[in-house]
Design brief:
about 280 residues, alpha/beta, 6-stranded mixed sheet, 6 helices
């Protein structure tokens, strides 16, 4: 397999779909002009709105969301594959008005070829006093997804999923050679854990880990960590933005590195069944 030129888009997504597309379009054009054949954007690429009522009013289905429609057209125009790291869209489940936090993989004809709804929602109380209850507005998905691309299989995950290593192992065992981790990490958790977890998931799976991030202070007041990162299958950081400003991160994926890492330590073939322990209930 020939090396694959990619680009990660680091954004500071505004609070409307129209503004979000206006923000990200020049960055994607820069990525395509730089030779990227696969371009990835972060979580919540269509808008970032913290207020529940405003967020609900902005929700549409994925086929009518202004940013999604425009991004599909841009992928077709530029002749590139584009992963919308996630769009916040209607889930389509009757009786549940919560959104889906949904990755959308778009091919070079502008067609959606795969989608993934975030499995693990971010319900935490941080030591800094920040409190997040993503489950109040987002319906979690229930299916892991590995998508076929011209360059090999791509595992789809989103942000908080990074803390659940068994998901990444399942994706690798299903044939993924690269795994996307589009994110909107908080500053305290990003500073403490972001790079460490990305490197760990690469080491555990022997995959390329591709992590485009939201960055900086957004219209709704939240702050995100940035530091978009590409990690190679042996666990070394191959490329990284060391700031929280919008930008483009280029990298080239050598898929022979996947084979070398997995041949050196064939851990994906060494699973053993085991008994217990009994789950602990406090």
């Amino acid at each position: 397999m020939a090396p694959l030129p990619i680009a990660l888009i680091q954004t500071r997504t505004p609070d409307s779909a129209a503004a979000a597309f206006a923000h990200v379009e020049p960055l994607i054009r820069e990525a395509a002009a730089g030779g990227a054949k696969l371009i990835l954007t972060p979580e919540a690429s269509n808008f970032m709105i913290r207020d529940k009522d405003r967020r609900q009013a902005a929700l549409t289905g994925q086929d009518s969301d202004g940013a999604v429609v425009a991004l599909r057209g841009l992928a077709r125009e530029l002749g590139v594959w584009l992963l919308i790291g996630s769009a916040i869209v209607r889930s389509g489940h009757d009786g549940d008005d919560r959104a889906a936090n949904r990755s959308l993989l778009i091919d070079d004809r502008g067609e959606i070829v795969s989608s993934y709804d975030k499995l693990h929602v971010f319900d935490v109380d941080l030591p800094t006093g920040e409190r997040w209850r993503e489950s109040a507005t987002v319906r979690p998905g229930d299916e892991a997804v590995v998508a076929d691309t011209p360059w090999g299989r791509l595992g789809l995950t989103i942000c908080y999923d990074i803390r659940f290593p068994h998901l990444y192992r399942a994706l690798a065992k299903a044939g993924a050679v690269m795994i996307a981790v589009p994110a909107a990490f908080t500053v305290p958790t990003g500073e403490a854990h972001w790079e460490t977890m990305l490197r760990a998931r690469a080491i555990e799976t022997g995959c390329w880990i591709l992590a485009p991030a939201q960055a900086g202070t957004h219209d709704d007041g939240r702050r995100t960590w940035g530091r978009s990162t590409v990690v190679a299958p042996w666990g070394e950081v191959a490329a990284k933005l060391d700031h929280d400003a919008p930008g483009v991160l280029f990298a080239t994926l050598d898929f022979d590195a996947v084979d070398r890492a997995r041949a050196a330590i064939p851990q994906l073939t060494h699973d053993r069944d085991f008994a217990g322990p009994t789950p602990f209930v406090s």
